[in-house]
């Protein structure tokens, strides 16, 4: 029997008394009372995330303000809040609630609030001393997410200046930093030598086996998907009872693997094929970020007797969520990660080998309650040659544009000397300043402009925000708000696995594009949004057109929320401009204001060349409505890039050179040192000279060439 249907088994809520953290309840409550900063560490699954907030609630902290807990991942914030609301016998959103981007499930009554680290950062913007909170817990600090790292620096700065910290607060804020057992000394030193509380926990041995399937050259997703499926089935048939956790990279890979597993598991004959006769079936469950929450709940429920559970998950199951009963790990060796790609000068979500420390963490998930086994589908050579020792913190590998704007808006003018736990390379900071300057968020001296103050209010990427604000100032926000919303939700177009169905879906999508009039990917998004909204039966309309109804529903909600933010800002003095021209041009020109950094020009055949100084050769992605029409195009802008063996541009719109002509010089004519004026004292002449050669010298030679 293979199962992937709903299974209702009540989770055992009393189990919390058996968690390692339980014996330290009183000590922890006291430690938080006694210290402004406290680091709490313990093995994953010891009960930090679900229990400590409840202990602090019981100790009465809520009477001085909310207990806030941050999570780097959205799903973790939601799932854990659900669990804790059950444990505290209240409905979600009352005493216990959560807030993630575009989804606020809290009320006046909420005193234990789980949220993403990005949300708390936004709250600090409105209320720098966090006057609504008595305790803030920064959870999963070892993940080293960009926002958590920035929060650490900000809270350190605030609390270390008593004047600032007590302003607008009746009692001092308490900060707890929670982390798996990595880097806790470093955290304590960073926070002024604060105490570290270690929850002692027992772990059981896990034996790890390498395989020869994946070597240093095998990075094709089809290869590792096939391999994890094969290994998971081997485990199922040849190992004793116990659940399996498979680590894969992302939603589409996970769905593919689950389909393959399901199909293959169907043909197992449990009388002959399975070693352990107590095992009578396989329950296959996917787990990834954008999954509906009711499906996520099933992950935690114990499987019915005789059934082995096999969870196929992203890295979220490595530390953020603990699933009980896991005895076997199948590790693909890969993770999907946002990295700054210097080849194209942008952040790109890419599949990369995990680090060795990550691999150990993954394996450890099999040894929580008894000895376990970890099956690595990669070879020792892959381990040696491809896997770094540690994962590089996000702050050192992604774009800093949004956080630097936040810091500037918080009055941290000197962004170079901000207390970073790990300092990002200066060129990344300078790059962020340059981008902020290019979209008019800061002025030449690095000061936040009026526009920058407006931009920081939107939880969107800076370019998109800039385009939206431009549209609003021209009175055509109705064109851009739906587009911004559609770009903020998961993919809306369904791509069926079956080739015939795929053809039909492509045809439907193309028709939607044609109906959109001036055909480009942005108007396509607008058209889908408007048509679905106007439909009497929107979910049927979606089904008929191969559109994800769930994604569209979120887009409707996101649009409303973005509109609310805009309305609030428009009540203050909001810049207004006039435009005479047609609507299609207006729309595309607004996009240009935000996306002129993502401009490309067709060079030969189907190849385009970007204009941002990187001069990358790019192709239009096959999912674009403009695919195969390249010959008719000249200049285009695009929303993002996908790098495989080629570089693809996605969500594309044709433009006229005239519209970006005056903006393009901004891509090159920036004196980054002027922007970071405060940093000037810190840099050596040598470093200045390095930049001189890169930036200024280029301009100087261009200037002299013109003179000749
Ligand atoms: P830590 O933060 O120390 O890693 P957690 O507090 O996340 O530990 O987990 C403690 C226990 O709570 C684990 O046994 C885990 O399986 C359980 N748990 C957490 N979330 C849920 C949930 N949504 N449903 C059922 N059990 C859960
Ligand atoms: Mg945790």
TrEMBL record:
CDD domains: SF2_C_RHA. GO terms for biological process: mRNA processing. InterPro entries: AAA_22 (IPR049945), DEAD-box_helicase_OB_fold (IPR011709), DNA/RNA_helicase_DEAH_CS (IPR002464), HA2_WH (IPR048333), Helicase-assoc_dom (IPR007502), Helicase_ATP-bd (IPR014001), Helicase_C-like (IPR001650), P-loop_NTPase (IPR027417). The keyword Nucleotide-binding applies. SMART domains: DEXDc, HA2, HELICc. Residues 29-200 form the Helicase ATP-binding domain. Residues 232-411 form the Helicase C-terminal domain. One of its GO terms (molecular function) is 3'-5' RNA helicase activity. The keyword Repeat does not apply. It catalyses: ATP + H2O = ADP + phosphate + H(+). Its EC number is 3.6.4.13. It is an enzyme of class 3 (hydrolase). It holds the Pfam family OB_NTP_bind. Belongs to the DEAD box helicase family. DEAH subfamily. This is RNA helicase. It comes from Oncorhynchus tshawytscha (Chinook salmon). The lineage of its organism: Eukaryota, Metazoa, Chordata, Craniata, Vertebrata.
């Amino acid at each position: 029997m293979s199962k992937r249907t709903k299974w209702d088994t009540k989770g055992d809520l009393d189990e919390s008394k058996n968690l390692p953290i339980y014996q330290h309840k009183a000590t922890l409550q006291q430690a938080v009372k006694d210290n402004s900063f406290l680091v709490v560490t313990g093995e994953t699954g010891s009960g930090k995330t679900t229990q400590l907030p409840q202990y602090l609630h019981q100790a009465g902290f809520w009477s001085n303000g909310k207990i806030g807990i941050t999570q780097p991942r959205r799903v973790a914030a939601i799932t854990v809040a659900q669990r804790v609301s059950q444990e505290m016998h209240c409905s979600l959103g009352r005493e216990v609630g959560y807030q993630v981007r575009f989804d606020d499930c809290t009320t006046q009554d909420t005193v234990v609030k789980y949220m993403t680290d990005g949300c708390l950062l936004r709250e600090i913007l409105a209320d720098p001393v966090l006057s609504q909170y008595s305790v803030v817990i920064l959870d999963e600090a070892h993940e080293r997410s960009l926002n958590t790292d920035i929060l650490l620096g900000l809270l350190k700065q605030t609390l270390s200046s008593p004047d600032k910290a007590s302003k607008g607060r009746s009692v001092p804020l308490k900060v707890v930093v929670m982390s798996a057992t990595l880097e806790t000394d470093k955290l304590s030193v960073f926070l002024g030598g604060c105490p570290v509380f270690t929850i002692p926990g027992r772990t059981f041995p896990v034996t790890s086996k390498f395989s020869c399937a994946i070597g240093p050259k095998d990075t094709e997703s089809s290869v590792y998907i096939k391999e994890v499926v094969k290994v998971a089935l081997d485990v199922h048939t040849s190992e004793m009872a116990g659940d399996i956790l498979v680590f894969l990279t992302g939603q589409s890979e996970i769905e593919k693997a689950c389909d393959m597993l399901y199909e293959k598991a169907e043909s197992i004959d449990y009388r002959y094929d399975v070693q352990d006769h107590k095992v009578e079936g396989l329950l296959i469950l996917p787990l990834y970020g954008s999954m509906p929450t009711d499906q996520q709940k099933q992950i935690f429920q114990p499987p019915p007797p005789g059934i082995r559970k096999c969870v196929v998950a992203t890295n979220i199951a490595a530390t953020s969520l603990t699933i009980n009963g896991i005895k076997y790990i199948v590790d693909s060796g890969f993770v999907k990660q946002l990295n700054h790609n210097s080849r194209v000068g942008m952040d790109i979500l890419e599949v990369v080998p995990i680090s060795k420390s990550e691999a150990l963490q993954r394996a450890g998930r099999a040894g929580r309650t008894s000895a376990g086994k970890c099956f690595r589908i990669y070879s020792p050579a892959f381990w040696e040659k491809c896997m770094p020792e540690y994962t590089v913190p996000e702050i050192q590998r992604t774009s800093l544009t949004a956080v630097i704007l936040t810091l500037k808006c918080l009055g941290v003018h000197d962004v170079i000397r901000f207390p970073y736990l790990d300092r990002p390379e200066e060129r990344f900071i300078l790059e962020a300043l340059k981008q902020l300057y290019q979209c008019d968020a800061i002025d030449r001296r690095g000061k936040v402009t009026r526009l920058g103050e407006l931009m920081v209010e939107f939880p969107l990427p800076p370019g998109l925000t800039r385009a939206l604000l431009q549209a609003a100032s021209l009175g055509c926000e109705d064109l851009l708000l739906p587009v911004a919303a559609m770009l903020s939700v998961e993919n809306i177009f369904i791509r069926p696995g079956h080739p015939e169905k795929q053809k039909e879906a492509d045809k439907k999508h193309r028709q939607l594009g044609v109906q959109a009039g001036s055909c480009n990917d942005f108007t396509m998004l607008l058209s889908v949004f408007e048509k679905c909204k106007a439909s009497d039966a929107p979910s049927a309309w979606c089904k008929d057109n191969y559109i994800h109804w769930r994604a569209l529903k979120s887009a409707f909600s996101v649009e409303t929320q973005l509109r609310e933010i805009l309305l609030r800002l428009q009540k203050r003095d909001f810049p207004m401009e006039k435009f005479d021209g047609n609507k299609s041009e207006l729309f595309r020109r607004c996009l240009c204001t935000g996306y002129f950094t993502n401009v490309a020009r067709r060079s030969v055949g189907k190849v385009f060349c970007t204009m941002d100084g990187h001069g990358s050769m790019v192709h239009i992605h096959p999912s674009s409505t403009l695919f195969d029409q390249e010959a008719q195009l000249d200049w285009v802008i695009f929303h993002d890039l996908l790098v495989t063996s080629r570089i693809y541009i996605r969500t594309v719109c044709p433009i006229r050179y005239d519209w970006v002509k005056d903006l393009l010089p901004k891509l090159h004519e920036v004196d980054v040192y002027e922007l970071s004026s405060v940093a000037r004292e810190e840099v050596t002449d040598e470093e200045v000279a390095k930049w001189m050669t890169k930036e200024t010298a280029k301009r100087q030679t261009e200037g002299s060439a013109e003179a000749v």
